[in-house]
């Protein structure tokens, strides 16, 4: 019996799922639009500040430029750290609020009894909803990530592209995180059948995920080690310094505290590494690994999200209504 | 494909946690009937319909629908329409979108029929489902189920939430479709008094088991209400299967099964045929009695090959 050919084509199921979820998707777009407008206005204010103080256009290696940037931070960007932490939560929120009701509300309203008795069957219907929701979410997260990046330029200037809060705002990682929140909330909705709990779990995971990802991020590629003969930060290089260690003139490794005990003050220590034969070894991820790291994190988070959605379909398939 | 039964189950059971909603349930519903499924709350009506619609899986035994199809299989989903209790659909969507969803999700879809059905009742397609009256919501659900041109239509308490006028409209729309398409219908209902005009086959469920199953005409012909002297009641009860036995002083009322003929009783007894409502109520009051008559009665477990 060729039972698989009986159901309507996949494209039709996707169109049906699009109609079904259109109100939720329109709401998502409206909320994202409002948030984006707020970010645009605040971003415009920050960028105008960068221009006015000249901190945006000067050479960041120079002391004069650092002064300008400090001046800018002082005048404009007091609220940026707080807003940056908000943006940690923001992306995942969209995923959780779209994913939570997607299946849970079907159970709460009893509409599964309509949806699952149509010719397409419950698995295709569930998969169709997840595909439509996930695709729209991923699609709108890309421009939203670009906007977040533009908005957070001052924070990136202050702490570098590899800083945890800047890294998670770039589109690839943002899309991955939003999809994981979506998948967790959808799966929780299928299993627990309660919208509120499903959204809550999605939110919790979307907040926890950046910390988990940060813990494993430095292991994506083997770090590079480089001997350095200055203690001053390499301002032009956007590298991600993981750790430093020191060696004495004979090449023996000495602990960081032993090294700092050698000199009286910063100038003295600086002269030890620049002329005294001591070496500082930086263990770091080079700046040009930013995008490879973005894609690696996008890859595993998106795979996780796909696995969560597949688990939701599997659950719906084996569970009774 | 010739289909002689629309629901066929031998010894099916469904357990929710610790309690059995349906147990050792034997039923073979022939095609071409409008079947009323009645029983008290918790008798297992919704469970039986959910099993037939493929919404839930049995804990024991197996069921086939439309001949040899497994409930919930693509072929069965294609040919069965289901209207759920309270007719729940997406409240935020306009009727037009609900029709489009149905069209996209089914291979067989008669859009014109659904539109004619709704136009005839003056239900605007632009109106959101959640803003329709209860009767209109039920009609939309029915229109969606009928647009699949199903061979079997399952309805779970379709009338429960409707006012008398809406009930009448709903049943007349349903019976029109039956007359036009010759589809089989199984609906559960509490409205025992309205069954006689609408159904021609009766299934009574009680305590998770099938108590009565048969064509209405056969069932009515098979039962007699005997009224006579209490002194002779025991003698009558020994010879005939008694469904319900009420003794009030000198006179007794015995509802007996006679096999389609008048009961062989003495002249001191008066015998009457009874109506469907009275029959159903008698069985509901006597859960231990059963009537599973005829060659199309319930299938015994040893006769039914479980697939």
UniProtKB/TrEMBL annotation, chain A:
Keywords: Membrane, Transmembrane, Transmembrane helix. This is ABC transporter permease. The chain crosses the membrane at residues 24-45, 86-104, 125-146, 166-188, 195-216, 298-316.
Automatic annotation (TrEMBL), chain B:
Residues 7-232 form the ABC transporter domain. It comes from the Bacteria. PROSITE patterns: ABC_TRANSPORTER_2. GO terms for molecular function: ATP binding; ATP hydrolysis activity. The keyword Lyase does not apply. InterPro entries: AAA+_ATPase, ABC_transporter-like_ATP-bd, ABC_Transporter_VariousFunc, P-loop_NTPase. This is ABC transporter ATP-binding protein. It comes from Kitasatospora aureofaciens.
